[in-house]
Amino acid sequence: MQRRKLGSQGLEVSAVGLGCMGMSEFYGASDEAASVDLLHSAINIGVTFWDTADMYGVGANERLVGRALRDRRDEVVLATKFGVVRGEDDSFRGVDGSPDYVRSACDASLQRLGVDHIDLYYQHRVDPQVPIEDTVGAMAGLVEAGKVRYLGLSEASVSTLRRAAAVHPISALQSELSLWSRDIEDQVIPACRELGIGVVAYSPLGRGFLSGAIKSIDDLDEDDWRRNMPRFQGENFAKNLELVERIEQMAAGKGCTPAQLALAWVLAQGPDAVPIPGTRSRSRLEENAGAVKVPLTNAELAQIDELIPRDMAVGTRYPEQAMSMLDG
């Protein structure tokens, strides 16, 4: 597995990471013991940049990751997130970026994970009621206390990034980036490079859609959260299958899988871009890791732009309420 640097503060991670969210929630039933085995397999093949959050499974995902890390902490770059508040009844209660909450959330995550420090700590969503300077100031205090090594933001706008970086160096911005979600290309990514901030791409496979494995809404479990996503619904689903067919055609010509092509595209956005696809399957884990062996030439990237225009996806990224939580 190749390595990449995120930001200019020294953080180095595997070129392909692992999103752990689906092991606990949102994508149907899962098996904790099987997930621990998968996480150990990830370490063994070099996929050692793991992403979780306190809200995934209302803490359950952090406990799962902590279980897998118990004897292998030093082999993994561990990222988690705070800020999206949920009740014990699984309800979503908004966003909190207040300094007191930052500190209490970090302590709670450390306890659930069973570790003494977090390598990369993100604000999951920007709190519009709290100045970003106050939130990042509290996060900087966690670095000073040795509880956190590097800081990140998720789904932050250019102005928020600039204000945050003026308080403390930001090593990574985690935002959705894939062949059907290219919103950050024109302004946000250039700002990240100007500020020395790496780009972590979540949902780089369009929540599995771009892999070609989902041909019908019936391929998803009844309790799968993706059934609520606009791009997976009604006519949008059928139209978005056309996008996937184009990826499949190009992947066949390239001699790789559709998922590998989609991940290779993210990797080709620059040496500071790191995708974190999620999976619960060892075969998919190995397939995703293999994307580092699929280089794309400038001509191929231009061909992708022609075949899959950036506005080709139909439907918003999230339902209306979740879209309202994105920063500017």
Q: Which keywords apply here?
A:
single chain, 328 residues, alpha/beta, eight-stranded parallel sheet, two-stranded antiparallel ribbon, 37% helix, globular
Fold and architecture overview:
The structure is a single chain. It contains 11 helices and 12 strands. The chain is α/β, with parallel strands linked by helices and 328 residues long. The strands form 3 sheets. Strands 3-4-5-8-9-10-11-12 form an 8-stranded parallel beta sheet. A hairpin with a 4-residue loop joins strand 1 (3-6) and strand 2. Helix 3 (99-113) packs across helix 4 and helix 5 (158-165) packs parallel to helix 6 (188-195). The longest helix has 21 residues, at 234-254. It starts with a strand and ends in a 5-residue tail after the last helix.
What's the SSE blueprint?
Elements: E1 3-6, E2 11-14, E3 18-19, H1 32-44, E4 49-51, H2 60-69, E5 77-82, E6 84-86, E7 92-95, H3 99-113, E8 118-123, H4 132-144, E9 148-154, H5 158-165, E10 172-176, H6 188-195, E11 198-202, H7 234-254, H8 258-267, E12 273-275, H9 282-289, H10 298-307, H11 320-323
Parallel strand pairs: 3-4, 4-5, 5-8, 8-9, 9-10, 10-11, 11-12
Antiparallel strand pairs: 1-2, 6-7
Helix pairs in contact: 1-2, 3-4, 5-6, 7-8
Which geometry do the CA atoms define? globular
> Which stretches are poorly predicted, pLDDT < 50 over at least 5 residues?
none
pLDDT averaged over residues: 94
Strand arrangement, major sheet: 3-4-5-8-9-10-11-12
Q: What Rg, in angstroms, do the CA atoms define?
A: 19 Å
Q: What is the count of β-strands? A: 12
How many strands, what sense, and barrel or not for the largest sheet? Answer: 8 strands, parallel
Distance between the termini: 35 Å
Work out the strand percent: 15-25%
- The number of helices is 11
Q: What's the helical proportion of residues? A: 25-40%
Q: Decide which structural class fits the backbone.
A: alpha/beta
Order of helices and strands: EEEHEHEEEHEHEHEHEHHEHHH
